[in-house]
Amino acid sequence: MATHTSSSAASGSSESSTDIRAPLWDHANIVEKAVSGGNTRWRCKYCNHNGFSSCTRVEAHLLQILGKGINPCHKVTFEMLNQMRNEVKRCKELVQRAKTRTVSMPTAPASGDGSSTKKNKRGPVGALEKSWALQDRNHLDALIARSFYSGGIPFNFARNPYLREAFSFAANTNMQGYQIPGYNKLREGLLREERAPIDKLLSSTPSVPYYLTS
What we know:
By secondary structure, the chain is mainly alpha-helical. 43% of the residues lie in helices and 7% in strands. Strand 2 and strand 3 form a beta hairpin.
């Protein structure tokens, strides 16, 4: 979380925000981060109010909105209030713009929505089915490529054996409706599960005398 002084925090600059969906977090000190989408323990940078909530009450506190279950910040001046309101407005516009500015894919699935039952057909595969399969493969290639481009992922990651094994497993296993792990699951639950065998391996590895490492 980016930190600011009182003067810079009230400048209304959304560019330094860590999350344009909740820009006013930049006006609070995070004491304890939320776990699995829960509440965050925070402290107001201006009045030192201690809170344990989502970003909704942080906004209500700083924007002096009544009836939200939290007292308004008495240290926020009229000028600071206007700047923060503009900051929230700008970020909402950025979020909305990101939703509407979609770039069409260079390909499309053969079924239109990827849910056609044609794949369940048994028996010899005809020319039309082969054409559909090729179109679906091309569309999947395009989706994977765009995830690399839009996420700034190095092309070398395509050689990652775990990535290739994951796609191979998914392609050869009936997991209809499967969704890849989300942000919280990746950074919390799955990370803990991954760390356990690594820690066990490290603890069982004998230490090397320092003079052998030089």
